Amino acid sequence: MDDKSIVCRCSDLSVKDIRDLIAQGYTTFDEIKRISRVGMGPCQGRTCTQLVLRELSIATGRPLAELMPGTYRPPVKAIKLKAICECAQGGEAHD
Amino acid sequence: MIRTADVVIIGGGISGCAIAYNLCKKGVKRVAVIEKGYISSGATGRCGAGIRQQWGTEMNCKISKLSCEFFESAQEELQYEGDIEFKQGGYLIVSSTMKEHEQFKKNVELQNRLGIQSKLLNLEEAKEIVPYLNTDGLISAAFHQKDGHLNPFHATQAFANAAKRLGAEIYTFTEVTGILVENGKIKGVQTSKGDISTNIVVNAAGGYSQLIGNMVGLDLPVYSERHQILVTEPVEPMLDPMVMSFSLNLYCQQVPHGSIIMGRGDEGEPRDLRITSGWHFLEEMAKTITKLLPPLENVRLLRQWAGLYNMSPDRQPIYGSVDEVEGFYLAIGYSGHGFMFGPATGLLMAETILGEETTLPIDMLHINRFKKGELIFEPSVV
């Protein structure tokens, strides 16, 4: 990937942005996430996590299998607050 | 890892990093911060990150005012290359019971006396600030424009980077495993990466402060409880201030990149160190916030998480030394407002440790207040 390739479409971060953060000493996915918002957007890390981990692996020399991808948090899919209210009040679940 | 330090601070949240920065700025040469995760991995990075000066006790008003004034120039003072994203959109706090309305009157009077320009609003005035506000069941609102929000990761990193430039050593992914005490005096700290000799240890461990207290044989009068929070997808700007209610037990704000962050307390929370997410919070949060701000019905929830409040008996921080162990200092018990008090914590604790006269009189926040029964209860907490 070249420097300009987009890693995070939600927060508009390029490969260079991620590499710069790693160079500044942010060497775990969680640290990069919190400082840059990578993985915090609507995709919830589905697109970017593996790309960031790969950059981390290259930069630190640690195998991918050893790198933590951060905590996967609920919900699995973005959902309107209205749908949660309706379920809470005993209504029909939405499709 | 360094072998000896003048001060070892346990905890790399806003408190620990701000204390380190202030100590270094005052010329202390060897300051070490020990953090078991990464910077702001605990309560700091999990909090709502609102800052307000609308409090019900004089101490909390003064501490928050000092902190807010620091945040206004933090970017420059800390020479941070990133953006701490400070936004002063105000806090609109709504009342829904007469008791609460009466408390607001007292609070605003106290705040105004201390130079905080808050005001009591009727519901029409509140709707001018938040047009979407559903005022059914509400009585009044209190508003202060200089309250606001900032990015907790960047704010804490700004303190950490500034402290490092001034010579502090910050050890992340390093866990304190023991504290050496001889003849009632602090002698050193044991960590997962080695031992450091020191005469001064600061407990700034947030939700884990009791565990650190136990390491020197103290049973600190604080406990931790989970508070949950959620964030929505980014949407167009629709909410200038933080909207908050003590009786509805919630807060909600839109951060600069568009996401809306909201949280609430749950009186049934057990006193432990869990930070898992629960469905009960999600349902209660969704029901209460969409009643208060109906357009949020159509906003999508992205993610929920939780962090620990470290609760003190009177919901005010515990600052200062302890009688039992010489050289052991506490900066704990924020009861959910440790982030917004961070700058004051840093300054006041550094002054206390160095034996200087403190910028604010914080004797009344010493742990001995609980032995003497001199509690001043903070009424305004979510």
UniProtKB/TrEMBL annotation, chain A:
<dbReference type="InterPro" id="IPR041117">
    <property type="entry name" value="SoxA_A3"/>
</dbReference>
<dbReference type="InterPro" id="IPR041854">
    <property type="entry name" value="BFD-like_2Fe2S-bd_dom_sf"/>
</dbReference>
<dbReference type="GO" id="GO:0016491">
    <property type="term" value="F:oxidoreductase activity"/>
</dbReference>
<protein>
    <submittedName>
        <fullName>BFD-like [2Fe-2S] binding domain-containing protein</fullName>
    </submittedName>
</protein>
<feature type="domain" description="SoxA A3">
    <location>
        <begin position="4"/>
        <end position="84"/>
    </location>
</feature>
<keyword id="KW-0560">Oxidoreductase</keyword>
<dbReference type="Pfam" id="PF17806">
    <property type="entry name" value="SO_alpha_A3"/>
</dbReference>
UniProtKB/TrEMBL annotation, chain B:
<dbReference type="GO" id="GO:0005737">
    <property type="term" value="C:cytoplasm"/>
</dbReference>
<feature type="domain" description="FAD dependent oxidoreductase">
    <location>
        <begin position="6"/>
        <end position="351"/>
    </location>
</feature>
<dbReference type="Pfam" id="PF01266">
    <property type="entry name" value="DAO"/>
</dbReference>
<dbReference type="InterPro" id="IPR006076">
    <property type="entry name" value="FAD-dep_OxRdtase"/>
</dbReference>
<protein>
    <submittedName>
        <fullName>Sarcosine oxidase subunit beta</fullName>
    </submittedName>
</protein>
<dbReference type="InterPro" id="IPR036188">
    <property type="entry name" value="FAD/NAD-bd_sf"/>
</dbReference>
<keyword id="KW-0560">Oxidoreductase</keyword>
<dbReference type="GO" id="GO:0016491">
    <property type="term" value="F:oxidoreductase activity"/>
</dbReference>
